[in-house]
């Protein structure tokens, strides 16, 4: 099964509407999720991402990362549902993907489409 690597880094635009305490907590939680993804700890990554989505349920970066984690965990049907959620979002922000040293932006919906396509392979 081919997967699309989605490790989102840099979420400054999402913090604009939050207070600094909430932004700090969100940033810390995202850091833990990203660390867990990098280590292949899918259970911990899923827990952190779901906790973050409880606070911001339509965050495309968290949704894409959760779909990726579910896909890597062998739960393709759940991942497809999350990718589908991203495709229905009203906004289509640029999302940074890749390692911190090789970060490049792509549209969230394009990443969701690529993720969906990789489930079929």
Number of strands: 2
Work out the oligomeric state of the chains in this entry: single chain
Order of helices and strands: HHHHHEEH
Distance between the termini: 6 Å
Residue share in helix: 55-70%
Which shape, going by the Cα principal axes?
globular
- Specify the CATH homologous superfamily: Tetratricopeptide repeat domain
Radius of gyration: 13 Å
- Number of domain modules: 1
For the largest beta-sheet, the strand count, sense and barrel status come to: 2 strands, antiparallel
Strand-residue proportion: 5-15%
Low-confidence stretches: 1-24
Describe the structure.
The chain has a two-stranded antiparallel ribbon. The N and C termini lie close together (6 Å). It has 121 residues and is mainly alpha-helical. It has a single domain (12-119), classed as Tetratricopeptide repeat domain (Serine Threonine Protein Phosphatase 5, Tetratricopeptide repeat), CATH 1.25.40. The chain contains 6 helices and 2 strands, in the order αααααββα. The chain has helices at residues 12-15, 20-38, 42-55, 60-72, 76-87, 108-119, and strands at 94-97, 104-107. Residues 1-24 have low confidence and may be disordered. It is globular and about 25 Å long.
Keywords:
single chain; 121 residues; mainly alpha; Serine Threonine Protein Phosphatase 5, Tetratricopeptide repeat; two-stranded antiparallel sheet; 6 helices; globular; disordered N terminus
């Amino acid at each position: 099964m081919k997967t699309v690597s989605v490790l989102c880094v840099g979420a400054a635009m999402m913090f604009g509407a939050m207070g600094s305490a909430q932004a700090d907590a969100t940033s810390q939680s995202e850091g833990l999720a990203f660390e867990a993804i990098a280590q292949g700890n899918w259970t911990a990554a899923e827990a952190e991402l779901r906790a973050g989505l409880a606070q911001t349920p339509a965050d495309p970066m968290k949704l894409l990362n959760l779909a990726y984690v579910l896909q890597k965990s062998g739960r393709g049907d759940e991942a497809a549902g999350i990718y589908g959620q991203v495709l229905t979002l009203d906004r289509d922000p640029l999302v940074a993907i890749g390692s911190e040293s090789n970060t490049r932006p792509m549209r969230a919906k394009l990443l969701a489409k690529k993720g969906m396509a990789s489930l079929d392979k």
